[in-house]
Specification:
Number of helices: 6
Structural class: mainly alpha
Distance between the termini: 23 Å
Radius of gyration: 24 Å
Shape: extended
Largest sheet: none
Length: about 210
């Protein structure tokens, strides 16, 4: 089987699975709901296996490059050392699930904090670049929204006494980024669904 035909078959199966999951939301039939849960379980299992294989491939690539005399030696060594330490800790602390979960939660919180800081820096850089660009409605909206959201999520308002009349508005503004994330996810899902339908019925030919 050629690579293009194989990709079309995979995309077609993914599109059918997406249609099934989408239609199963509107029914209460126990058989369909059971099939939906089984598909979710298989999807989680396949994702976990693929993620494990990706991590192993990444670590093997780091190990193969340890012998190379290049500037990335420290990076490769640290990646391998951290992976080995986490692997040993996981096997030794795996019997005590509470301790393992607590460390995983602390690591997750630290990573989320770092990513939030990077997002804040990216917003600051975007504000700086937008301030130097010619004025427009989109530019002004981006500047104002960036400043407002950075102030809201900086924690400054927690030290201030906010009137009750503004509390509801502030809570609404804090929910807006979550709505934006859901909008992006829905857009990606619709794009993937349309691409799957196109490949399923027209074989991915752009002229059709």
């Amino acid at each position: 089987m050629k690579t293009s035909a194989r990709i079309q078959w995979i995309a077609g199966i993914a599109a059918l699975c997406g249609f099934f999951i989408l239609l199963s939301i509107f029914t209460d039939e126990p058989i369909i709901l059971a099939a939906q849960q089984r598909m979710f379980q298989w999807a989680a299992l396949v994702s976990a296996v693929l993620l494990f294989m990706a991590v192993i491939e990444f670590i093997l690539a780091r190990v193969r490059r340890l012998g190379e005399k290049s500037g990335g030696f420290i990076h490769n060594f640290l990646c391998f050392a951290v992976f080995l330490a986490v692997l040993i800790f996981g096997f030794t602390a795996g019997r005590n699930k509470d301790v393992l979960h607590s460390y995983v939660l602390k690591t997750q919180i630290a990573v989320e904090s770092v990513l939030a800081g990077l997002v804040c820096l990216a917003l600051l850089y975007g504000v700086y670049r937008a301030a130097k660009a010619p004025g427009s409605v989109l530019k002004n909206a981006f500047l104002i929204s960036s400043i407002v959201f950075m102030v809201l999520f900086s924690g400054i308002l927690s030290f201030m006494k906010i009137p009750d009349s503004l509390t509801g508005l502030i809570q609404l503004l804090r929910v807006l980024p979550t709505g934006g994330i859901y909008g992006l996810l829905i857009g990606l899902a619709i794009g993937a669904l349309v691409t799957g339908v196109r490949i399923l019925f027209w074989g991915g030919n752009p002229n059709r």
